[in-house]
C-alpha cells in the first residue's frame, strides 16, 4: 500500500517537514510583493518564469528552461501539435524525404526577420551550417546526420544526410530549427546574439535585466495572421514557486508556469485562478560526471541509482503529482520500454553489495551541485538521506540554473554530479543522442556510451514505423540505464496557473509553454 507523504517523512530524518509542506503553504507564508516590481501596461502579458535564461541565442544556450524565452523571439522551421508533439508546418510550409538521405524543405513566403532582412533559403542554410559546424554551437549533435545544406532556390532548402534520419523534422522544431537573422550576426557564424535576439518570432526583443525580467513587443509584420495575441510580453524571473504563486494570486502577473506540483491542489481551490495541468516529458534526474573519481566505476553509479526509492521520492517531493522515472521517458510515451524500466529498481542491499565490489565499502564523498530554490533543496535532502544508506556522502553547492549548469556541463566541469532535470525534446532519439552521445554537451564527462548504443540509436532513425523505432529505442534505453550515466528520478507534471484575464493558453506535452496564441480579456 502506498504510504502517505507524512508517513514517508517520518522515515527520512534529514528531511524537514516544514520544507516538504512549504510548497502548499507558500502562498500564505510570504508577504505581498511590491506592486512596482512588474509591468502593468494594458495589453501586456506578464508571466512568472522560473529561471534566468542562459542565453537568448538558440545555438549557444545550455539550459532546457531557455526554450520558453526563445519561442517568443524565434520561430522554428517545423512546429508541433501541443497534445502529441506530431510535427506540423512552421517556417517550412512543407517537407519531403525525396529519398532516405535527402530532405527537402519548402519555406513560407513573405517572412521577414525583426531587423527587416528577408527570411529565405540562404538564411536557412546559414543557420543550419552555423548550428552544425560553428565552434560556439552547443547543438552540433542535433544535426550530426546532416552532411550538406543547399539553398536550391529562394524558398527551397535541400539537406543531404550522411544516414537516414526520420527524426530530423522534429529536430528542426527545437533549437536547431530556430532561425536567427544572418544580418544581425554580420553573416559571421561565430558571432552570437546571446543578449540581443533577432528572429522571426511573435515579439521583438526589448530588454533583459539579469535575474529580473526579459521583455518584448509585438512584431507587427509576423507572418502568422493574428499572432501574437498581445502587444507585449514580460517574463519576470521568480525562481521560488511559492513567490511565483503569490505573484499571480495578487494579480501582479497574469500567468505562472511550472509551479511546484505540491501547489496543484492549492491553485485548483483559488476562485480567481485557473489551473492548467497535464503530463510532460520533463524528468527530474541526476547528471553524473562519469570521468571523475569513483563515478568512473559503473558499479558505483548503479549503486547510487538502486539506492533511491522513487515512489517515496514522488510522494515526498511532489505530493504524489507525477510518476517514478525508470528511464528518460514517461510510461505514456510510445517509446516506453518495459525491458529498460526493469533495470532501474529500488534495492538497497544490492546497492551496498555493488559498493563493496567496487572497493568502496567504507563509502565515498562527492562534490554535489544543484539549485538554491526551496523545491530543489528538498529534493537534494531526499537524495542525501537515500545515499547515506550506502555510504555516499557529500554536500550540495547551489547556484542559479544557468550558472550551475554552465559550470557543470561547460569547460570548467565543476562538480561530480548535478541535481537537475531533462526538460524533454520532441523526438525521443534526440533526447538519447543529446544526453549520452560522447561529444554531447549534456554528457559532462564526454565518456563513450556502451557498445551497440550508437548503432541502435541510428537504427531508430531509419524507419517511419513507430513499432520499429520503439524496438530500436528499447535497446538504446536499456543500454543507457545499465551504464547509469545519469540517474532518472521522476516525471514532472505541468502545473500552471492563469488569472481570469488569460485566454487561449494551454499546456503541451513538452512542458515548455508557448504564448503566441494567448489573449487578454
Give the tags.
alpha+beta, Dipeptide-binding Protein, domain 1, Dipeptide-binding Protein, domain 3, 3 domains, 17 helices, 19 strands, disordered N terminus, SBP_5, peptide transmembrane transporter activity, ABC transporter substrate-binding protein, Peptide/Ni-bd
Description:
InterPro entries: Peptide/Ni-bd, SBP_5, SBP_5_dom, TAT_signal. This is ABC transporter substrate-binding protein. It is found in: Periplasm. By secondary structure, the chain is an alpha+beta fold. The chain has three domains: about 40-55 and about 195-280 and about 495-520, D-Maltodextrin-Binding Protein, domain 2 (3-Layer(aba) Sandwich); about 75-175, Dipeptide-binding Protein, domain 1, CATH 3.90.76.10; about 280-495, Dipeptide-binding Protein, Domain 3 (Dipeptide-binding Protein, domain 3). About 30% of the residues lie in helices and about 25% in strands. It contains 17 helices and 19 strands. The protein has helices spanning about 5-10, 15-20, 20-30, 65-75, 120-135, 170, 240-250, 265-270, 300-305, 310-320, 340, 350-355, 375-390, 400-410, 430-435, 455-460, 465-485; strands at about 45-50, 80, 85-90, 90-100, 100-105, 145-155, 155-160, 205-210, 215-220, 230-235, 255, 275-290, 320-325, 365-370, 390-400, 415-420, 485-500, 500-505, 520. The strands form four sheets. Strands 1, 8, 9, 10, 11, 12, 13, 14, 15, 16 and 17 form an eleven-stranded mixed beta sheet that branches. Strand 14, helix 13 and strand 15 (about 390-400) form a beta-alpha-beta unit. Helix 3 (about 20-30) packs across helix 7. The radius of gyration is 23 Å and the shape is globular. It starts with a helix and ends with a strand. Residues about 1-40 have low confidence and may be disordered.
